[in-house]
Structure formats: structure tokens, C-alpha cells
Amino acid sequence: MLLRVFIGVIIVALAGGAGYWYVQPPTVAVVQPESGLVIQRLVATGRVSSDQRINLGSLVVGSVAVVEVDEGDVVRAGQTLVRLDDAEAQASVRLAEASLSQAKARFDQLTQVGQPEAAMNAVQADANLNQALRDLERAGQLRRDGFLSDADWEARQDAVELDEARRQSAHQELESRQADGSEYRLLAAQVEAAQASLDLSRALLAHTRLTAPIDGRVVQRSVEAGDVVQPGSVLLSLTGVELDRIELSLNEQQTSRVALNQSALVSVDAFPDQTFPATVSFIGPRIDPQRAILSVRLRIADPPDYLKADMTASVDISIARSPAAVTVPNRVILYPEPDQPAVLVLRDGRVVLQRVALGLMGDDRVEIRNGVSAGALVVTEPDAVTPGQRARPTAEAQP
């Protein structure tokens, strides 16, 4: 009898314990919002570059004689990089030099010989005319006295007219050889034309030498000795020695989030574990209508030695920060309706759906501007429970 009573007591106790555990609500992991710094970043991909990127090509048609550099070579401003066959250009320069010498000789002859000669001829013509006029005056007196025939008188008049014509011609010649005269201007223009022809020939000769416009590095070579090059074709590409720029192309939707002087962290694919700082230094003035992108540049204050031109760079731009924001982990945010963020909170032993207003989105935490306070119990695994069910909190280590 006692054994039966004892067994009954044990059965009742077991049934009571099972009932107690059955009616207890399940536990859920929760976390309380924290107050601290949150930084919202914009992630993009770009290319390592330099402030100076120059494509060099020939301005004339020609055959390449020598290519004096290769990819990777460091060059100095003014250094010859490519030489074309210049035999024809050299001959043109010599011909132009000879033409200029001839033009200058004719001009010198005018100023040193022609001008004094014309002046002397004009003086002589004036003297001849004066003498003819005096002779005509004496002949007139003789004619009135009856000692000069009509034929002689007419001959003296013709002599005066001839000397007058010669005087006019001499003075016209003198005038043309002065600084404002026609012959002077003609020979001066011939000298200028010959000089211009020589300058052109020398310029064409210079175009047979492709020189470096800057101190830089050869990053692309597209020419070999013997190639026939055409104007406009790219033969070499240079960058500045300092690779201190990142070129980005951002989507049009991201343009409002970028501003000058924003800080960024950059890494290149070849060295993904090494980062270095950069700053937004340029924002393009227009959107590319074909691709709907905006050009953005970042300045690297202290470029690492391992950078190479056109390396792929991953960029995290700090577009906003809040030093004392109320934040929760990103994973606790729900969207029961589009553009309607919410969280599940544990309140009075039940799971409650609480709508929230979000602020900055950090890498792993999001700012809560309205909806939950610092002491709220936010469910960290919202997919494991449903609103309205009973639950008990289980503390979770903060991430």
C-alpha cells in the first residue's frame, strides 16, 4: 500500500513538472540598442591613375626609324621617345634656308645699293631739269632777239619736257625704295614668306621627333621600328610619375550622396588586405547621358609604393557619420511592407512588431532615429518568431 502511494506521488510530481515546462514560453535572443558612432559608406570600384595621363601620337605621316623607350620606362620632359625617318624633312629645311638667304640678299641689295642709287638718280634728274629750264629761258631771249629759229626753240622745249618726265620717274623710283614704298614692301614680304616657309619646314622636322611633354612613365607602347604611322594614331601612353589619383564612375542615383573632401579607404585587388586613405577631390559637372554615370576622383595624399597605373581599386567613401547615434545590428531590421522598416521587440512577455525610422546605414549597424529607445529588447533573429507570441529574453553578446 505504501509502495503504491509512493509511486503515485512520483507520477503526480512528474506530471506537474512536465506541465510547468510545457506552459513556459520559449526563449529568444535579444539585444539592446547602443549609442555610439555610426558611419555610412558608399562602396565603389575605380582605377588607379595620375593627374597626368597623356596619349602621344604623330602629327605627320612617316616611317618609324627608332623607338627609344619601352613600357615601364621612366622618362623626363623633353626626352626623345620615337624618331621618324626625317630625310625629306631635312631637305625641306635646307631648301627653305636657301630661299630665305636669297630673299634677304635681295632686300639687303635694295637697302644698301638700291636706295642710295635711287636718291642719287633723283638728285641728278632735278639738276638736269633745272639746267634745261635755264637753257629754255636763255633760248627765249635769243628767240625774241631773232637769233634762234623756231625749230631750235621747240627742241629746247622738248628737252625740258623730257627732263621733267625723267625727274618724275626718278622720284617715283626713290619713293618705291623707301620704307613705305612698293618695292621695299614687296622684298620685305618675300623675306617674311621665306622665313615662314623655313619655320614650317623646321616644325615638320620637329614633328619627326616624338618627345615627352612631362616627367612620367610609359604605360603603353603601340609602335615598333618600321611601322608607318598616321596622324592621330596613339603610339605611346604616359602617366605622371606620382600615381596619386583614383578614377571612379558612380551611378546617377549615387550622385547626391557624394561631396568634396569626403574621406575614403582604398584597397587594390593585388593587395586586398592593405588599405590607404584618400579624399574626394573632384566631382564631374555633368552626367554621362549614354551611361548615366558621374565621374569622381579621389586624391591619395601618400600613395603606396606598390601602386601601378590602372590597378583596380575598391573604395569605401564615408558619406555621412553620426557620433552619438542609437544603433542596432543591421540583421534585426524587417520590411513587412515596402519602405516600411520595423523591428521585433520583446514587451511584457510578448513579441511586438515595432515600426522604426532609420538613419545612417553603417557596415554592420544601422541608426534608429525613432521607434525604439535605448532600453528596448530587440529580437536578433526575427525570422524565428512571430508577432504576438509569448517569449522570454536570452541575452546575446554584442557584435
The order of strands across the largest sheet is 2-11-14-13-12-15
- Structural class per helix/strand content? alpha+beta
Give the oligomeric state.
Answer: single chain
Distance between the termini: 60 Å
Helix count, DSSP H or I runs of 4 or more residues: 4
Order of helices and strands: HEEEEEEHHHEEEEEEEEEEEEEEEE
Q: How big a fraction of the residues is strand?
A: 35-45%
Shape: elongated
> What number of structural domains do the residues give?
4
Which spans have pLDDT < 50 for at least 5 consecutive residues?
12-22
The biggest beta sheet reads:
6 strands, antiparallel, barrel
- Radius of gyration (CA) equals 49 Å
Q: State mean pLDDT (0 to 100 scale).
A: 86
What descriptive keywords fit this protein?
single chain; about 400 residues; alpha+beta; conserved putative lor/sdh protein from methanococcus maripaludis s2 fold; Elongation Factor Tu (Ef-tu), domain 3; 6-stranded antiparallel β-barrel; 22 strands; about 35% helix; about 35% strand
Walk me through this protein's architecture:
- This protein is of the alpha+beta class.
- It folds into 4 domains: 24-39 and 324-395, conserved putative lor/sdh protein from methanococcus maripaludis s2 fold, CATH 2.40.420; 42-51 and 241-321, Elongation Factor Tu (Ef-tu), domain 3 (Beta Barrel), CATH 2.40.30; 58-85 and 208-239, OB fold (Dihydrolipoamide Acetyltransferase, E2P) (Beta Barrel), CATH 2.40.50; 88-205.
- Helices cover 33% and strands 37% of the residues.
- It contains 4 helices and 22 strands.
- A hairpin with a 3-residue loop joins strand 19 (357-361) and strand 20.
- Residues 12-22 have low confidence and may be disordered.
